[in-house]
Structures are given as structure tokens and as C-alpha cells.
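Quick one:
INPUT:
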């Protein structure tokens, strides 16, 4: 089996006359953390949403684990093991933490493994364990982000895509989120991470792509991108 688990070829997304993603191609290898960085409006969310068929592609092909998923409905994609934790958390505010977590399992066939995975996820996020009966909407911003990640993991994905998991979090919590992401990878889940927090993302990733107005302009190992002068100027606040 090839070590590429997710392959995106010539992806294009249009919103009416706006050409948001302009023919990008990239790959994610099994076991890696791959990051897409870029400024506001570069097309990062559109890329993830198009992979999941949450927004339509105007052109392109997506292959996941050897299967062409270009035209599969979102729930079928989730069943195959590809899950998106969307931007802005989108947890269910009127459901408890436990109920939110169970919403992550809807597509699973192996219901007997759910208990085991709940233990796994609560071990990763001990703060949620103490709050299982609390309503999602009453959690702090950081806790809601943890819940969104935890709910994503409850689908037992082979690849977890995350859209700006550190958005709006205090620095200490940002560090915690990035630590958890590494831990999740160490437990065998491949990660595609979209971030505006370029420095933190490049520090933990194996490979990174820079997206500018819908095009990939640079790609390299994270350790090289972090040293790249153009990246430093544009995304790391170093002049
Ligand atoms: P951010 O970091 O700000 O979330 P992004 O890199 O994720 O940005 P996208 O959200 O993918 O960027 O947006 C790419 C472009 O597509 C932007 O110009 C945006 O205004 C436009 N766009 C996104 N969603 C829609 C939509 N539903 N209708 C029209 N235009 C859209």
C-alpha cells in the first residue's frame, strides 16, 4: 500500500464568479501532520470543505486511501475514515458534552468499540471527563474546541482534518491544543491542519503547503518552511 493516504489533484472551487481555489494539488502521507497555511481568504477552509463535499468542487479529484471520493456524499466520506473538525467548533450548545461526543459516532458500524474509544478520547481530554453532563454551550471557548476535536475523534478517523483549531484561544490554550494534536498523531491518526497560526503549525508539522489567493506558492518540510525568508516575512511576523 502506498504511504499517501490523501491525494488532492487540481482542486478548484468557485462561489459564483469568485474563484476561491485555483487548481491546487497536494498529498498527505500516512502518519504525518501536514499543514496548509495562508492568510485570510487564501482558500484554506474552501479546500477542506471541498474535500468533504460540503461545498462543491468545480474541478478536481480527491483520492482517500486508494478510493476516489471526489463525488461521494459527506457522510460516506466520514464512514471511510476521513473527518473534518470545522472552523468555529460548531458543537451542539444544547446537548451535553457526552451527547456531543456521541454525535461523532453516527456513521460508525462498530458500535461495540464506542465505549473503548470514549475512554481513549476522555483520556486525551481529561477536562471533558469532568464535564460529561454539562451543556456544550456553557463550556469555555477552549473547552468547546477540545470538545470539537474529541467529537471528531469519536468517528475513529484515519485522517482528521482540522480547520483553525487555535482560533480565538488564549496563548496557554493554544499551546495545549497543539500538544493534543501531536498526541493524536502519535496515537496513529494522520492530520491535515489548516492554521493561521503559522509558526505553531510549522513547528509541529512534517510537511507544509503555503496557500496564497487560491494557489499553492510554496511547499516543503515544516522545518525548512520555518526558516524560509518569505514565509518568515509574510506569516511569522519577522521582517
Ligand atoms: P480564513 O482564514 O479567513 O478562514 P480561508 O483561507 O479559510 O480564510 P476561505 O474561507 O476558503 O479562506 O475563503 C476563500 C475565498 O472565498 C474568500 O475570498 C471568501 O470570501 C470566499 N468565500 C468563501 N466562502 C464563500 C461563500 N460561501 N460565498 C462566496 N464567497 C465565499
Amino acid at each position: 500500500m502506498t504511504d499517501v493516504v490523501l491525494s488532492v489533484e487540481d482542486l478548484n472551487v468557485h462561489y459564483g464568479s469568485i474563484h476561491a481555489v485555483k487548481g491546487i494539488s497536494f498529498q498527505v502521507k500516512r502518519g504525518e501532520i501536514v499543514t496548509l497555511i495562508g492568510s485570510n481568504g487564501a482558500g484554506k477552509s474552501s479546500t477542506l470543505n471541498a474535500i468533504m463535499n460540503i461545498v462543491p468542487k468545480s474541478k478536481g479529484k480527491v483520492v482517500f486511501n486508494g478510493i476516489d471520493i471526489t463525488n461521494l456524499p459527506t457522510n460516506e466520506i466520514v464512514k471511510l475514515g476521513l473527518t473534518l473538525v470545522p472552523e468555529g467548533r460548531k458543537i451542539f450548545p444544547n446537548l451535553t458534552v457526552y451527547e456531543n461526543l456521541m454525535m461523532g459516532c453516527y456513521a460508525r458500524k462498530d458500535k461495540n468499540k464506542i465505549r473503548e474509544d470514549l475512554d481513549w478520547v476522555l483520556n486525551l481530554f481529561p477536562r471533558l471527563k469532568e464535564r460529561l453532563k454539562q451543556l456544550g454551550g456553557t463550556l469555555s471557548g477552549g473547552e468547546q474546541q477540545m470538545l470539537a476535536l474529541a467529537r471528531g475523534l469519536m468517528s475513529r478517523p484515519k485522517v482528521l482534518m482540522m480547520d483553525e483549531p487555535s482560533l480565538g484561544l488564549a496563548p496557554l490554550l493554544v499551546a495545549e491544543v497543539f500538544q493534543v494534536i501531536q498526541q493524536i498523531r502519535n496515537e496513529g491518526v494522520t492530520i491535515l491542519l489548516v492554521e493561521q497560526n503559522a509558526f505553531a503549525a510549522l513547528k509541529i508539522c512534517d510537511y507544509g503547503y503555503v496557500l496564497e489567493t487560491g494557489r499553492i506558492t510554496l511547499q516543503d518540510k515544516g522545518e525548512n518552511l520555518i526558516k524560509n525568508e518569505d514565509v518568515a516575512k509574510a506569516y511569522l511576523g519577522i521582517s
